[in-house]
Amino acid sequence: MFSRLFSRSKRPFLSLNEQEILALAISSEEDDGRIYLAYADALREKYPHSAKVFEEMAEEESHHRQWLIDMHVQRFGNRIPLVRREHVRDFPDRKPDWLIAEMPIEKARAEAEAMEETAHRFYVEAAARTQDAATRKLLGDLAIAEKSHESLARRLGEKHTPDDVREEEDQTARRQFVLTYVQPGLAGLMDGSVSTLAPIFAAAFATQDTWQTFLVGLSASVGAGISMGFTEAAHDDGKLSGRGSPIKRGLASGIMTALGGLGHALPYLIPHFWTATITAAIVVFFELWAIAFIQNRYMETPFLRAAFQVVLGGSLVLAAGILIGNA
After folding, report:
1. How far is CA 252 from CA 244, 306, 315, in A?
2. How far apart are CA 79 and CA 73, in angstroms?
3. pLDDT (tens place) for every residue of the chain, 327 residues total
4. Residues 264, 217: contact at Cβ < 8 Å?
5. Which membrane topology term applies here (predicted)?
């Protein structure tokens, strides 16, 4: 509801006059140039070649901006009205700098190409609504510049990021993804799946009460998730290790720890004891094999070795829980 009310306060593009169209084009080029420089700053340390791409894209936007300003001065004088894309209905929003700083490199490349496509459509529509011949020609030329042959992002990418460089940057991005998300998430999943086996199945066989067993599993899973999340976030700020944001790592670890335990706690919402227990055991089987798969897929651990370690360890913990519960 609030988004609809807010959108009504914006002006439709068709209501803009030619001076306002030029002002919108100028502010849009300024914004896009700053965004490309923000991309460059965010990527420069780890991806210097791609950073160079975005610097040249920002330089292109600066040239476009100057052409537009010259046209505005020629036709309407030095005072440029304040018209920005957020003032115009249906104009796509741009991400703020603090989101750009955390954007993966492939996402940054895709966003840049989407920005160019948006700019092309804008200049086509703007040129169609302009009567002045010189202004119409300028806007048409800018539309062609944004859409010429291939996108500017791709053309500059071929110059500064050839296949071998892009492959190296993609490997760096994948390594960062593993360090920030996969590694702490996998540790959490292993801890949540394995460490909660004993208390959950011990409670199940000791009480034969599915609801009480579920409560034990729920408390163990949530408690372990909170503990693992705070531990991961607090023990390493990521600056020296290069493992990335401690908040992201903490969330990945905490959430996966809780999910790992809840996987075999939720079946005990089934009121029939043996149905719930058999279902939980099946869930445990799939959890352990999922852990082995992730280790093989992202941590390059041989699958058979990962399966042996995880399944054997989980089976021993499960057996301990059952024996203790039956004692």
Report:
1. 12, 21, 25
2. 8
3. 434 444 457 788 888 899 999 999 999 999 888 888 888 888 887 778 778 888 888 888 899 999 999 999 999 999 999 888 888 876 766 666 555 666 667 777 777 777 887 888 888 888 988 889 999 999 988 888 877 634 555 555 555 555 555 566 566 666 777 777 777 887 878 877 777 877 888 888 888 888 998 998 888 888 888 888 888 777 666 654 556 678 888 888 888 888 888 888 889 899 998 898 889 888 888 887 888 887 777 776 777 776 676 677 767 776 776 777 676
4. yes
5. Multi-pass membrane protein
Same domain, 59 and 192: no
Any domain includes 40: yes
Q: Count CA atoms within 13 Å of residue 198 on its CB side.
A: 10
- 45 falls within a domain: yes
14 within domain boundaries: yes
User: Does the model's pTM come out above 0.85?
Assistant: no
The total domain count for the chain is 2
The domain of 213 spans: 175-326
196 & 258 share domain: yes
Within a domain: 168: no
| DSSP, residue by residue, 50-100 | HHHHHHHHHHHHHHHHHHHHHHHHHHH-S------GGGBTTPPP---HHHH
Report d(CA 27, CA 17) in Å as an integer: 15
Q: Which of 161, 191, 218 is the last residue of a domain?
A: 161
Q: What residues contact residue 166 under an 8 Å CB cut-off, 6+ apart?
A: 49, 157
Distance CA 46, CA 152 (A): 22
Residues 152 and 247 in one domain: no
Q: What is the CATH number of the domain that holds 126?
A: 1.20.1260.10
Structure tokens, 48: 């210097």
